[in-house]
Amino acid sequence: MLERGKRRTRTGVVVSDKAAKTRTVQTERTYIHPMYGKVLKEKNKFAAHDENNVSKTGDKVKIMESRPMSKSKRWVVIEVIK
Fold this sequence. Notes:
This protein is mostly beta strands and 82 residues long. The protein has strands at residues 9-16, 22-32, 39-49, 60-65, 73-80.
């Protein structure tokens, strides 16, 4: 897919590939708490569209923001890293 404008991209791991053409991708980021200085981990799950069912559970993938495709799907798998 072509990068158009300033679309956000994230890297994560596929945690579910049960639905047809849809992958659940879990991303993780670390940050330092502004007041207490503790290092925290934040995990998010995104429903991403995978047109050709290329990725499987456990694959590391790169996803990009896109137009809404359903109630919860607003991301597209653009490449399988591992």
